[in-house]
Amino acid sequence: MNIDYKKTLELLNAFNQALRTSGAERDFYYEGKNLLASFQMSIFSDIKMYTADPLKLINENNQSLGQKIKAHLMQSVLSALSFFSFCVVYLRYVWTRKPVVAVYSIDTTSDKIHNRDGRVSYLYDYVRQNGESLLEFMHTVPSLHSLRKFLIRKSPTIYLESINFLASGFVSSRKKKYIDRSLLNFPGLEQRDADFLYTLYKKYKRRKEVFVISQNIYGFIYRRFTIQRFWSIDDTRHVFELLPELQKQRVKTYVFQHGHYTKYHTGFLTDMFDKVEIIKPQFIVVWNEYFKKELLRLSSYFSEEQILVGGEKRGVRAYVQKEIGDSIGSVLIPYETDAPKAEVKAYIEKFIQEGKTVYFKLRKDITKEVQLQQYGFVTGEINEKCIVIFDEKDILNKIDMVAGVYSTYLYDMLYLGVPVAVLDTSMDYGMGMVEGGLAILYSQTSTDGEIINQYKSIRGNIQHLYGNILYIDTYIKNFA
After folding, report:
1. pLDDT digits over 350-395, tens only?
2. What is this structure's pTM?
3. HSE on the CB side for 102, CA within 13 Å?
4. pLDDT tens, 438-473?
5. Burial group, residue 124, by CB count within 10 angstroms (0-12, 13-18, 19+)
6. Residue 74 in contact with residue 143, Cβ under 8 Å?
7. What are the Cα distances from residue 39, in Å, to 143, 271, 281, 361, 423?
8. How many Å apart are CA 476 and CA 310, to the nearest integer?
9. How many whole angstroms from its chain centre is CA 469?
10. Cβ distance 132 to 92 under 8 Å?
11. How far apart are CA 226 and CA 221, in angstroms?
């Protein structure tokens, strides 16, 4: 699957412009705030999948009757669990009258201690260690896996999808009103692209109607409790659904960074919405000063005062002061899901031809054969100069450079004290690292000497950031 990020952003901008020009943007206002801005990341994701495989997306949207019935039943089960969870938390509150902490995260059990999202495990650490009462919301993809994870956690959970499922029942009974297709113009686009964008307009027009009704449900839930604060992973696709009614109750709302930010993280950026009111959290807590500056550089809708530097999770290692030689003998390259893999393979072949040892780090949740096949390697093509690994900890002292296209892994490797390179490919997703002075752009014509000299010129920036690491759990104790 080859995702075209540049085309995705172009189509998103065309979509926004068409709705503004036609006046259809007015359909997305709620209490004076522009919901189209809140939908940006979800719309971007839909367009991204469309650019990767238009036919696959169309087929997925045309569900059979059996698939629709199965989905409806699963939604009904999750709604029952959500209602049960609300009752449990409410009865506990009535009994203790203890204020609650509202937390939103993604439905995963990657953190084996809490059986929750490991990217924000420190939030749950704090809640457990301090005996806080928890009002928990999650985004899930309704399936039997959702039920299994609920049973593993054995903890009350209110699913956003359940609230939307209930709200959509009221929307379904209403007559749909859409702007006429002829009034929504997408100049310069192919007919198929224009038709797809009109389909998106109808999808998100309906989602806006579901959102409006869902606010009555959230308001009912929140008014049953005294809520101390709201903590969330920085998921811009869904977190805004939880915010309006919380903010009416003057609850402070914080979202916490879980990955890097780029110009493609449209859910945080003003873009065409710099002069309109939008739904947003009060504060975002980032890992370090670099990401605060990066959000401001990218024209985030957060002001400088709203971007708080909190720190990293425990386990992030401090910067290593390492002597840099005159040549690069080994390169660590991670598997990256959306990278243009044929182009990355060409770089791997370049490194091997230059006599470098390549450590190709694979993911543990995908088989070795599948990952190698995706990068175009055939059986027997991997030789002693390309070493496949799943864990890098035993070879870190052998690494002279880390190279990739876009992933957060590249940021994680900055502490090594060796050059981190963004490979020059058709995907510019990782260029923020280069523009921000943390990485070097590596092309097919780059030489070891050029890379080493460029790295020495930016090493001070990296050492400043990673030589004095702040930790998020300490930060939470201070402000919570």
Report:
1. 999 999 999 999 998 889 889 988 998 876 556 677 889 998 888 8
2. 0.90
3. 28
4. 999 999 999 999 999 999 999 988 888 877 788 888
5. buried
6. yes
7. 24, 13, 14, 35, 31
8. 8
9. 23
10. no
11. 11
